[in-house]
Structure formats: C-alpha cells, structure tokens
Amino acid sequence: MKLQARELRWQVPHSGTARSIVEDVSLHVAEGELVGLIGPNGSGKSTVLRMIYRILRPAAGAVSVDGRDVWRMSARDTARLMAVLAQENGGEFEFSVREVVSMGRTPHKSAFARDDQRDIDIVHAAMLRVGVLQLAERSFATLSGGEKQRVLMARALAQQAGLLVLDEPTNHLDVRYQFEIMNLVRSLGVTAIAALHELHIAAHYCDRLYLLENGRLAASGTPAEVLTAEHIAGVYGVRAAIRLHPRSGRPHIEFMPDEPV
Amino acid sequence: MTQGVGVENRANLAGDGASQAASPPRRRMPMLLLALMGLLLLSITFGITLGPVEISPASVWRIAGHELALRLGIASAPGEWTLAQHQIVWLIRMPRVLLAALVGAGLAVVGVTMQAMVRNPLADPYLLGVSSGASVGAVLVLAYGVLGFAGVYALSLGAFAGALLACVAVYWLAHSGGRLLAPRLILGGVAIGYCLGGITSLVTLTAGQRELANAVLSWTLGSLAGTRWDELGLPALVLALGIAWLLLQARALNALLTGDETASTLGVDTTRVRRVLFVLVSLLTGVMVAVSGAIGFIGLMVPHITRMLVGTEHRRVLPVAALVGAVFLVWVDAVARVAFAPTELPVGIITALIGGPFFVWLLLRRGLSPGAGR
Questions:
Q1: pLDDT at A72 (0 to 100)
Q2: N or C: which end of chain B has fewer CB within 10 A?
Q3: pLDDT tens readout for residues A172-193
Q4: Range scoring the smallest mean pLDDT among A95-99, A198-202, B17-21
C-alpha cells in the first residue's frame, strides 16, 4: 500500500470544545491509483490532506507512506516520499520557472552540495515532461493559473517522490485548463490523492473516491458507487440524475437544481 | 478556446524580454561578483582619500601596505608621507571606512534574511523595530553597566539580546493562525520600534549621566565617527560566519519565500530554520548596532536593488547584497562627511533621507496588498 491513513481525527487545538473537524477518516491509495477526495466546502478535505502531508498533526490516527509513519519521519525524509501541490501562491517574490522547479531538489541535497549535472538534468526532464520548458526563464509570478499549476507539477516531478498529493489542483482554473492539468496527472502515471471540488472531474479521472461530509466519511468506492443520486442529494443537498457511460462505466452527473431534494 | 490561445501567444511574446531581467545565466555571476569587489575596493580607497587633509589613492595603499608588512614582520621602510597623513589614513579613516563596508554588508544581509523569514519585501531591521531593540539593550549596558561579566563585548551582547527580544515580539504580534499578516507585521514593527525608542530615551535621560545623553543621541541617529580598529573584529567575524551559514541554508531560504507550508513539503524543517534565523538576524543586527547605532533602510533598499540585478535565488542574492550594501554605505558615509563640511552628519540621517522615499515608492508599487503577507 502506497498511502495508508487510519482513523484520522483532528480538532482545533486548545479550543476547549471537544468537537472534531475530522473524525475517524481512514483511506488508502494503492500503487498507480488516482484517488479523489470529494465533499462540500468545509467538509474537511484540505484538513485530511494536511494531516497526510505532515502539516497538521492528527489528534488521533496515523499516516504512513510505503509503510513508514510520516509523523515519525523528518520533513526531509517525508519530502522524498511525497510531493505536494497545495493551494498556496508563490508570494510576490520573483523566481524564474527553472528556479521554482529546481526547488523540487531541496530534500535531496545536503547544505554543502551544489546542484550538479544530475539535478540539472532532472529539472530539465521534469519541465520537458509537463511542457513548460519554453517557460524556463520566465518569472513564475507572471504566469497564468494553468501555467503555474504545470510548473508546480514539474517541481513535484523533480522531487522524485512516489506519491503526489494534490489539494484542489483545478481550483480557479478555466475548464480547458482543468482538463489539461488532470490529463497531465493521468498521463504521468503517478500515484496520487487529490482533493477535488468539481464532481465531473472526480467522476472522469479518479480510480476511486472518498466522499466527506462534516469531517466524516460518507461513502467510498468507485466513482459509480460513490456518485449516486442519493449521496449527492444527501451530502450536497442537490438533486441529480446519474447516467453511467456505456463503455467506461463512469458516472455522468446531471444536476437538477430546480427540483426539491 | 480562441481566448485561451490568445493568452498563450501573449505569454510567449512577453517571455523573452522579461526572462533576462528575472534570471541572468549562472555564468554571469562570477563576473558580477568580481566587478562588485573591484567597485568596493575603489570605493574604500576613494572614501579614505576624502576629507580635509588631502591624500592620494596611491599613498593610501602604500600606508596600508606598510602597516600590514610591519604586522607580518616584514621589513618595510616608511615612504614619503607625513606622520599626520599616516595617522589620518591608518588610525582614523581606514577603520571607519572599513566599518562602513562591514555594517553596510551586514544590514543588507539582515534585510535579505528578514524578508525571507516573513515573506515580505518591506521587512527591514530598522522598520520592524529590531534595531530599536538592539539600541535598548546597548543603552542599558552603557547606563547601568549590566552584563558587566562580558567585558568589552557587553555592549554587543546587550544589543543582541535586545534585538532578539524585539524580533520575537514583532513576529509573535504579526502571527495569527499559522499565517503572517503583512499590515500587522509592518504596523506592529513600527509600534514596537517607537515603544523601544521611548525606552532608550527614558533610560538615557534618567540615568543621571550627562555625557551619556550626547553619546546616545549621535548613536541612535547612526554614526560611524570615531571608529577604532579594535571595533572591527567582532562585526567582521559575525558577518563572515553569518553569510557562510546563510549560504548553506540558501535552499531553505528560497523555499521559505514560497510559504511555510510549501517549504515544509519540500523537506525544510521550518520551525528549526526559523529559530536559527531569529538568532542570526538578532546577532548580526545587535553587533552592527553596537558599533554604529541604528542605521535605517539599508536592509530595505539593498535587497531590492540586488533582486533587480540578479533575481530572487538566495545563492546569488546573498553575496551580491553584501557587496552592494558595503559599497552603498561607504558612499553614504563619504557624503555624510563632506556634504556639510566641516559639520559631519550621522550616516543614519542620509540613509533615512534616501530610504524614506524609497519605502513610499515600494508601498505605492506593491502595496500592503492581500498577497503581501500570504
């Protein structure tokens, strides 16, 4: 098992209230799988991912990658096993695209090591693979949203980690670029877990889905098993009709917002 | 669809022009460093020749060479300079100009580091109250002789402790829910700076030592006057060690600029690195303030100019900023000495006169926009 999260719980520290933001969430990702984490805003998708990528320490439960507990590893060791595309902008400092992608080498380099030919080759190959080589000397800050995501994907590839964690990678992107970035994830053949906002993206690309509601798992399984009319009505509060694509068997969702749930 | 293609075309067209400024090729770095070192050497020489007593650049280096040879035990006969010229160059002007270079480099490096720590290009040890903290520590040493056990290093130690406290206070104030709030950082820093400035004045005026008040006044304005050789050792050592350590942490500094969370996922132990940076920034600021007072805005202007020259990558920014800062303060000090001769201005006045408008310009250009603190 590539990624295993067991009975994760998270609550706001020192808040005094016993209410958990996330409670009893277990999930796994097998080698080569693309797994989606879906749910309405505030359902805990990002919180679960941040426990996985070692930013929020779970109040209970454990996360392991390749059988190693990430919360017993250093940030550096974790970064060699897992690369993250989170929702954080690059700030207002101007790095070139090549410099941003080179940052993916950070966990592999000791303080005294200079970037050698191997690092340069890895960075070059990563940029080539996601199609941003022609942007290499551009300033990252001036790129469009879709281009930025591709550059960050190249950084993740340069990190050479076996697992990719994506927090709403299609957020704020035009439809065309949403598909572009997800096609890229698919074509790279990486093992990945992604929090996804758009259900049609989750239905089209993911091997399996976990549906979160108020910090708890409401359903899990293949897209056809999870994206049912009942689940969507129950969790999202919207009536929907589901058709399964005759060949792929993937669900196609038609929302019916004018009809009562 | 057509719109998307248009965007890409525009992006490609803009690409070539913008790329050169954003990130010059690596091979240009050694040339730039050499050029800046040459410029620094020229500036130092010029700075030493400047003053009421005329001294040629050649005799500056002959006198320096002679003194150096004597210290290395090599026989060297004094040349055709007068004793007065010798003493002015060796005992008065040279230590002062060298200290200007050290302090300029140090404050520039502190600015670069603080800006990475708080992810804000407006960070500066003077603006954020760190220099004021150092001043309080130093004044307490001068007025009450606290930290007497540290001997000649008591002043630097006091300044370091004061800087560290101010640094932690400002950071704590600006921090909320795992995020640094830019307006709170700047306003909090200014508020803490004022508060600490008040404490400095209070201690100065109530300590019952009249000479102290005069000394403190010129010193809070930032002054390099009366520098002695024995004052150069500690700043030089701390600066060299500081730059060396920061260069080793350059990858971590780069990563910090992209945000704590990203830095962490890139394998940087952000808590540990930030803790060390706190100490380092305070140490550098404290040591510099102890010898020269609070000279403002160097840490704001020099990193900015440096990034316009070589981009943001810290392996290039750190050495270039140090050299640019050194050259910059040598020249500012030269202006401070001759502009209103025979009256000599504290350098801090000149840096404030240049730095204030520079800060306003930065504000107008970048603003305290929502992105500034994220």
A1: 93
A2: N
A3: 888 888 998 899 999 888 899 9
A4: B17-21
Q: What is the dihedral of CA B115, B117, B119, B125, to 10 degrees?
A: -30
Q: Using CB atoms, which residue from B14, B268, B366 is nearest to A92?
A: B366
Stretch among A99-103, A201-205, B170-174 having the lowest mean pLDDT: B170-174
Q: Does A73 touch chain B (CB under 8 A)?
A: no
Option in B19, B261, B371 nearest A92 (CB): B371
pLDDT for position B327: 97
CA atoms within 13 A on the CB side of B345: 16
- The pLDDT value given to residue B15: 35
Question: Which of B265, B269, B366 shows the shortest C-beta gap to A86?
Answer: B265
- Does B21 have pLDDT greater than 80? no
Q: Which pTM was predicted?
A: 0.87
- What Å distances lie between residue B22 and A89, A195, B35, B325, CA to CA? 18, 33, 20, 21
Q: Is 60 exceeded by the pLDDT of residue B14?
A: no
Q: Which pLDDT score, from 0 to 100, does residue A15 have?
A: 63
For residues A130 and A155, the answer to whether their CB atoms sit within 8 Å is no
| Residue-range domains of chain A with CATH | 3-12+19-255 (3.40.50.300)
Domains held by chain B: number: 1
Q: What is the pLDDT of residue B370?
A: 39
A118: Cβ contacts below 8 Å, ≥ 6 apart: none
Cis peptide leading into A40, omega within 30 of 0? no
Residue B30 lies in a domain: no
Whether B20 is covered by a domain: the verdict is no
- Considering chain B, what percentage of its residues have pLDDT values greater than 70? 90
On whether the CB atoms of residues B12 and A134 are closer than 8 A, the answer is yes
Is there a domain that residue B11 lies in? no
**pLDDT score at A173:** 85
Interface of B to A at Cβ within 8 Å reads 1, 4, 7, 11-12, 14-15, 18-20, 22-23, 119, 121, 248-249, 251-252, 254-255, 257-259, 261-262, 264-270, 307, 311-313, 366, 369, 371-372, 374
From CA B78, how far away is CA B291, in angstroms rounded? 31
Interface of A with B in 154-183 (CB under 8 A): 159, 174, 176-177
**A16 three-state secondary structure:** coil
Q: Looking at the complex, report in whole angstroms how far the Cα of residue B169 sits from the nearest Cα belonging to chain A.
A: 22
**Helix or strand run (H / E) with residue A255:** strand A251-255
Is 80 exceeded by the pLDDT of residue B68? yes
Task: Read off the CATH number of the domain in which B173 is found.
Answer: 1.10.3470.10
pLDDT in tens, B223-266: 888 888 988 999 999 999 999 999 999 999 999 998 888 999 99
Contact A138 B22 (CB under 8 A): yes
> What end-to-end distance do the CA atoms of chain A give, in Å?
38
3-class secondary structure, A4: strand
**How far, in Å, CA of A37 to CA of A27, rounded?**
10
CA dihedral A69, A70, A76, A80 (to 10 degrees): 80
